[in-house]
Design brief:
There is one protein chain. By secondary structure, this protein is mainly α. It contains 23 helices and three strands. Helix 2 crosses helix 15. The longest helix is centred in the N-terminal third of the chain and has 34 residues.
């Protein structure tokens, strides 16, 4: 263990490694500069930066497709919005709770996962999150590539008739995403800060087009808002609960790896207020844009178009197509890079910190995003909402509950930063680098929801899979860890290794 050597420093409730501790870890195989705790001087994200991050990530085509997809599944517009609001308020709870460790200790998600799973066991959780993020990366890139292909097709009909056009557009947009992500955290911060207001203006523009077009067709707003639900008798709750699980799953990925971003916050107040202002409000507002425009397409074209790329293609105007494609490109970039590259890049780096950097992880993420075949995941609203989102949400719910139980109930928020990067001598090594009790918790908490996927009589457990898995993980983990004390740090031990720093007024 660390003994009485001062390995960590605390200033105003925020911790960092001391310079001597960083130097001693330089050659450690579980440490690199990308995974190292953020230094206090690097924590510069304000409430606005955090809120802008969420605006940039929430205003995206999958958000639009979530709302319109629920309508396509049979819900009315207000039922779809209610479903989305409720889902995002629920997922905001574990999001805020797991953010705390990132801000307090400056650690990214793969290192945070070492607390519960062990130094090596964290690979399991980090790569599970990375694979899902890579799938999302592929989905977003396919959408952006489709928008690029659509605008070129409007300008050049010859291009539109070429079957290879969509693939060229896809890989061009793919390369742009990978390149910006490769530039790192400051590029992401800059892009999100400027992208948020642009996306707000473009969202308003889309609604104005829908309103004008509906008026031109001799109809009004109430023709959109009076659209009834179309679900079959007795099908409301399966659709609503399935949609709720999908909505929670939508950001359940970030509920796990939110420390990747909260580690840059200036304070707990900044990260808390930024997320509260940025996530639920933006998701509700942009979901309404999706509902309104989808409803308008039903009036204008005689059928609901839940894919915004298809809506842009129907407009026909080269200028409108160009503007729409720009909006989709900005929305996709601001979401894709922040939400779907940072986590897998850090997770892949965690596999071998001495040899794999964050930048190398971005390249691997890009390759996985193609291998996941996103064009199949987006083949229909059902495949997207109830297939892709519903299934991975079942697997992530237990992790969110487990992390909260570990950090708050089991550890009481006390961490030895230096030991998170040590090997066999670390208190977080457990048995051979793996905490088997965390793995058992994950399996036990996921069993019921997964059975609900294959046994019709247990479908309720699948439809509410994230919530059930979350609650089971929250309760099972502390029970299994009850007699495990070797990984805990006592108050006296924390005092021995912690240097108290002074707050410097700027």
């Amino acid at each position: 263990m660390s003994g009485k050597v001062k390995t960590q420093r605390v200033v105003g409730g925020l911790y960092e490694l001391t310079e001597s501790a960083r130097e001693n870890l330089k050659e450690n195989q579980y440490y690199n500069d990308d995974l190292a705790p953020t230094m206090l001087k690097e924590r510069a994200w304000t409430t606005y930066n955090i809120a802008a991050l969420w605006v940039g990530m929430s205003v995206c085509i999958p958000t639009y497709m979530m709302a319109s997809g629920l309508m396509a599944a049979g819900l009315s517009w207000w039922q779809a919005i209610l479903n989305i609001c409720l889902g995002n308020l629920i997922v905001l709870i574990p999001m805020q709770l797991n953010s705390h460790a990132g801000t307090k200790y400056g650690i990214p998600y793969p290192v945070f996962a070492r607390l519960a799973f062990g130094i090596k066991g964290s690979h399991i959780a980090a790569i599970a999150r990375a694979l899902i993020a890579a799938g999302w990366f592929g989905i977003q890139t396919w959408i952006g590539g489709g928008a690029l292909n659509g605008v070129i097709s409007v300008i050049s009909p010859t291009w539109g008739s070429w079957v290879g056009g969509i693939w060229v557009s896809f890989f061009v947009f793919w390369a742009l995403n990978v390149w910006i992500a490769y530039k790192g955290e400051e590029a992401i911060k800059f892009m999100e800060s400027w992208g948020a207001p642009i996306l707000g203006i473009l969202s308003i523009g889309l609604m104005v087009w829908a309103y004008i077009s509906v008026k031109a067709a001799g109809k009004g707003i109430m023709d959109i808002l009076n659209m009834p639900a179309t679900y079959e008798p007795g099908k409301f709750w399966p659709i609503f609960l399935g949609g709720l699980t999908a909505n929670i799953a939508f950001w359940s990925t970030l509920a796990l790896n939110i420390p990747d971003f909260s580690r840059y916050a200036k304070s707990q107040k900044d990260q808390f207020r930024g997320q509260l202002l940025g996530l639920p409000t933006t998701m509700a507002a942009f979901s309404f844009v999706g509902v309104f425009v989808t409803g308008a397409t039903g009036v204008i074209f005689g059928k609901f178009l839940w894919d915004p790329v298809a809506v842009i293609a129907k407009i026909g105007s080269p200028f409108a197509a160009l503007l729409g494609a720009l909006g989709i490109a900005v929305a996709t970039l601001t979401t894709n890079i922040a939400a779907n590259v940072v986590a897998p890049a850090n997770g892949i780096s965690n596999l071998n910190p001495r040899k794999i950097s964050y930048k190398m992880g971005t390249i691997v993420t890009g390759i996985l995003g193609v291998a996941i075949m996103p064009w199949k995941l987006l083949s229909s609203a059902g495949a997207y909402i109830f297939g892709w989102l519903g299934t991975y949400g079942i697997l992530l719910g237990p992790l969110a509950g487990m992390y909260i139980a570990d950090y708050y109930i089991y550890r009481k928020k006390a961490i030895d930063l230096d030991d998170l990067f040590r090997g066999e001598n670390s208190r977080y090594w457990y048995g051979n680098g793996f905490n088997e009790k965390a793995i058992y918790t994950w399996i036990l908490a996921a069993i019921l929801p997964l059975l609900g996927k294959v046994i019709p009589s247990m479908s309720f457990f699948a439809e509410s899979g994230w919530i059930i898995g979350f609650l089971l993980g929250l309760f099972i983990y502390p029970v299994l860890m009850k007699n495990e004390v070797s990984s805990l740090i006592t108050e006296e031990q924390e005092k021995e290794i912690t240097e108290i720093g002074e707050i410097v007024e700027k």
